[in-house]
Amino acid sequence: MTDPAPSQLGALVRHVRAALEAAGKPDAALDARLLVEHFTGTSRTEAVTDPHRAVTPAQVDDIISALARRLADEPLHRILGARDFYGMTLSLSRETLEPRPDTEALVDLVLPSVRAFADTTGSCRVLDMGTGTGAIVLALLSQEPRAQALATDISVDALATARANADMLGVGDRLQTCASHWFDAIDERFDVIVSNPPYIPSRDIALLAPEVRNYDPLAALDGGEDGLDAYRAIAEGCVSRLADSGVIAVEIGHDQEADVVSIFEDQGLRHEQSARDLGGVMRAMLFSLANA
Ligand SMILES: C[S@@+](CC[C@H](N)C(=O)[O-])C[C@H]1O[C@@H](n2cnc3c(N)ncnc32)[C@H](O)[C@@H]1O
């Protein structure tokens, strides 16, 4: 029989950590701390300065249920219902990808273009395709108050989450949302188009960690047979949706740089810049209309 969960803050953190370590979970200490803080509404400092603080039976129950979910491979941030990205806290939902720190490289790559348009014309019209939680577009709107954006996704659930996140961050009045299969429902032109599309080859989905395979939505991961389906659709469609001097930036998988360059060049776009993520992996690429 397992020991009953302790009802004091410090002991509870140790109990959760020990259970996660015993199951071989990476980041057991961090996950234990974040789970306990979340469900008790306490801070890291309180766990250190007030370890004997009483935790209510209802909070202990919540933490034990959350621990069981984590032991069953559910990612920590899905359990918490939110994840930080580019200094924002974003709510997650069933059909949204958990935004990844790697994607911040895409924001960093494209933000100077958004600012340059705003400096030149007083605004910048941005399209984020496959917006998920809204991570990319909301980072851009938060960083550049003169930008306006349209966020699209094939998932209506994701669009509702992006809208809620935009409202929560106070940028909702500068964001429109629209359900669309890539460019199908889009007629306008944009100064900046950005996308982190699904790019995992279908046969590799089964090889992903259970945290990803079982909890991130398949539509956010599966890039078709060679992982490049979305890039072909996006490269083909963007030519008639970019304004003069417009740019398009996409996130890519670790070995897709050459293929993605060739897909965009085949449509007459020019490769301007690439950016690596924090792990040094080539992660984001920016293209312009070659004749602009
Ligand atoms: C890798 S996720 C990126 C989510 C978010 N932009 C981010 O970076 O965290 C890809 C997104 O593309 C959306 N998507 C998949 N197929 C699509 C399609 N045919 N048209 C539009 N969006 C699509 C998925 O629903 C998902 O939200």
Automatic annotation (TrEMBL):
Residue positions binding substrate: 196-199
A Pfam family matched in the record: PrmC_N
Entry keyword Hydrolase: no
Enzyme Commission number(s) from the entry: 2.1.1.297
Residue ranges occupied by any Release factor glutamine methyltransferase N-terminal domain in the UniProt entry: 12-81
Segments forming domain Methyltransferase small: 123-200
Taxonomic superkingdom: Bacteria
Tagged with keyword Transferase: yes
Keyword vocabulary terms for this entry: Methyltransferase, S-adenosyl-L-methionine, Transferase
GO molecular function: nucleic acid binding; peptide chain release factor N(5)-glutamine methyltransferase activity
Reactions catalysed: L-glutaminyl-[peptide chain release factor] + S-adenosyl-L-methionine = N(5)-methyl-L-glutaminyl-[peptide chain release factor] + S-adenosyl-L-homocysteine + H(+)
Function field: Methylates the class 1 translation termination release factors RF1/PrfA and RF2/PrfB on the glutamine residue of the universally conserved GGQ motif.
Family: Belongs to the protein N5-glutamine methyltransferase family. PrmC subfamily.
Protein name: Release factor glutamine methyltransferase
Organism: Aquamicrobium aerolatum DSM 21857
